[in-house]
Design a protein that fits this description.
Helices cover 37% and strands 20% of the residues. The chain is built from ten helices and twelve strands. The model has no long low-confidence stretch (mean pLDDT 95). The structure holds zinc ion. Zinc ion (ZN) binds at residues 166, 177-179, 181, 184, 186. Zinc ion (ZN) binds next to loops.
Amino acid sequence: MNERIFGVDVGGTTVKIGLFDREGTLLRKWEIPTRREDEGKNILPDTAASILQEMKEQNILPENVLGVGLGVPGPVLPDGTVERCVNLGWKETVDLDDTLGKLLGGIPVTAGNDANVAALGEVWKGAGVGRSSAVMVTLGTGVGGGIVINGEIICGAHGMGGEIGHMHIRDDDLDVCNCGGQGCVEQSASATGLVREAKRVLAANPDTESSMRKSGDALDSRRIIDCAKDGDALASQAVDTMANYLGRALANIAMVVDPEAFIIGGGVSRAGAFLTDIVTRYYHRYSPLSKKKSYIVLASLGNDAGMYGAAKLVLNRFGKS
Ligand SMILES: [Zn+2]
């Protein structure tokens, strides 16, 4: 049977939809706007309509669709419900599998948290290909995470599995994180965290020359990394602090789940090997048992990781018969 799978990544701005075959070849991809107005009530109907339209155009019968996988930016429980999804405007519990499944006329649906699903995508077809376990860390405005062990996502009892960004890692950071905690990984290792650290370093060293000063309030993570690459001492210090805390977090995770690899993605990962080399140095310092065993690599699927992972979620759940 010529089975097809849809992998859907619901973001705050767009819904990315991919059509896959069973082997994981991305046959077609497109996106529709995420309509967050009216508490996001149109998002799932819009997604369903777009998938049904594609099936019609491509002559795909419902019985030839193995399922639809869905990644959403919120904590998805093992039963496919999400309690709240602020980024999408959802204020009440949504049963994703059931609601989207009904809108699709009974096609099986399975959902997961977007960061977890992206990790699954990278393990399946990206930087982790050939491996069955990896931990993905996405360094963007915040820090997202996903843990895949033996090919399955670890989502935990409350959907918080893999929330690496909110591990406490730093006692001397007294600013309060979005989660209500202090000293979270996200506060040190995100793009925002790196800028905060760089500003701290600049303020503490008013007499030291740094090309970062030229940027003023427009200083961003990319500029800091560029300055560090050029040998700017204060920029290097900020990047080093960030890499230190990230390396420490990865070392702790390694001693809990022992993955084959850590996959680093997100905007800050564009710093490439320059950043991962420093993180790796700290990682080995804090986790000597992992040396020469698990590696830190860069993500390779970019924005498509969520679609791939959502498709793999379908294979994991419905593809084993
Ligand atoms: Zn936090």
